[in-house]
Amino acid sequence: MTDQLSKLKLARYRFTARVQDRLTLPEFKGSAFRGGFGHAFRRIACPFKERASCEGCLLRGSCLYSYIFETPVPKDAEIFTKNPYAPHPFVIEPPLEERGSYKPGDQLSFNLILIGRAIEFFPYFLVVIEELGKMGLGERNPSGKRGRYRLEEVSSIGPQGEEVKVYSAKEGRVLSEGVVMDGRDLISALGERPPDPRRAQVTFLTPARFHHQPERKKQPERGSRGPEWYVGQPGSPIQRLEFHILLEALLRRISLLMYFHCGQRLELDFKELLDEAKGVVIEEDQLRWTELARYSSRQGRWIKLGGLTGRISFAGQLGPFLPYLLLGEQVHVGKGTAFGLGKMELS
Question: Domains in the chain, please, with CATH?
Answer without folding.
Answer: 2-7+185-346 (3.30.70.1900), 9-183 (no CATH)
